[in-house]
Amino acid sequence: MSDFDFDLFVIGGGSGGVRASRIAAGHGARVAVAEEHKMGGTCVIRGCVPKKLLVYGAHFAEDIADAAMFGWDVPECRFDWPVLRDNVLGEVARLEGLYGETLANHKVTVFKERATLVGPNQVRLASGRTVSAGKILIAVGARPSLPKLEGVEHIITSNEVFHLERLPKRVVIAGGGYIANEFAGIFHQFGAHVTIVNRSDTILRGYDEQIVDRLVKISLAKGIDFRFNSGFDRIEKQPDGSLRCVMKGCDDIEADEVLFAIGRQPNTEELGLEEVGVEVTERGAIKVDADNRSSVPSIFAVGDVTDRIQLTPVAIREGHAFADTFFGNKPQRVDYGCIPSAVFSHPPIGAVGLTEAQAKNRLGVIRTFTSDFRAMKNVLAGRNERSLYKLVVDAASDEVVGLHMIGPDAPEILQAAAIAVKARLKKTDFDATVALHPTMAEELVLMR
């Protein structure tokens, strides 16, 4: 037995912290977790899980509209926001309970309170108790960034979207990233008029330009408005409760809700980092090495708080690698190359590997293959929306170095296709694979 209360103390009960706790405990470590809010973190409580459930709900708008061409007599429909909202929150509560059960089953001690650092091997709980641990893992995640803006108290972020009392008829969304575009599609399908305001003329930086351009064109055709190279001067609340966005770079906009999705900020304030010597970046992210170790040898960090790649599966991989390395005698490091990602817009985007521009800069001579088509379902439904698949190939090696898609179920298809890109398969391997017909995915092996 060590002289410490625990072998590992984890601050934060999100995806990365829970995975690290469970794996470390499975290796025989005495583990404790402190979480001041709810188990599950951003993804489960206020992020990808409830958002994806809203995406599913939003898709029914088009599915119901298309049903008539498939022989279904659908009566007039009415969408009830409180029903979906409450069902989603109920599912979140269920998942939170499962996270707690997982930790209990692995005999992890849970403190439902805030914890801060008071030494290289000590944390202080909100109740005043001081606890010691051989290693401390910080997995407190990140939160939506807020602008310095007059009237900022009138805006909402992705945290509040899931709790809206009523569905707004006019929504202004600030930002050009995946969160902004996902909620734009959700609100639009629910019948709201959506305006996206972006400070530059580029959305979804890091995604292939041809794919992004297709999303913009489809969004405009649906009726979503864009205000590029524009910003907010202030937000005023009107006597009727509506909001007036006083703009810079475009005309003022009237709205019922203003959602800011302009990035996420690591939750490192008032954790005691500076006092114990943990180095952070200018954005407040904890600096760590390849083994997730901070500048203090006994203190580690994983997930969004490190601001490396803010994706839940990455945090889970980091937490698992940390636990295996330091408690399981199985050294592991996360490979950050070729990580697949998705935008659950309408239609969704899936991407893995290099974009065309990145490949040209890195490899020089490349080949690209595209398939621009209408999904069979859209043809019969009379919907003109077109999908676009793209392969980026290293001309010298014939290796497929990038795969980019926009269209129905693109993320579902991409997960399997990402294995091929990660395995560095060649274009000839794709060509040699027999198509699965009739599917959208068969386009991946038919491009010539």
Structural commentary:
The chain is an alpha/beta fold and 448 residues long. It folds into 3 domains: 6-143 and 265-327, FAD/NAD(P)-binding domain (3-Layer(bba) Sandwich); 152-262, FAD/NAD(P)-binding domain; 347-445, Enolase-like, domain 1 (2-Layer Sandwich), CATH 3.30.390. It is built from 13 helices and 21 strands. It has helices spanning 15-26, 41-46, 48-67, 81-105, 158-161, 178-189, 209-222, 273-276, 312-327, 356-363, 376-381, 410-422, 427-431; strands spanning 6-11, 31-34, 109-111, 115-119, 122-125, 130-138, 142-144, 170-174, 193-197, 225-227, 231-237, 243-248, 253-255, 257-260, 264-266, 299-301, 341-343, 349-353, 366-373, 387-394, 400-406. The strands form 5 sheets. Strands 1, 2, 3, 4, 5, 6 and 16 form a 7-stranded mixed β-sheet that branches. Strands 17-18-21-20-19 form a 5-stranded antiparallel β-sheet, with helices on both faces. β8 (170-174), α6 (178-189) and β9 form a beta-alpha-beta unit. α1 packs parallel to α9, α3 packs antiparallel against α4 (81-105) and α3 runs parallel beside α6. The model has no long low-confidence stretch (mean pLDDT 96).
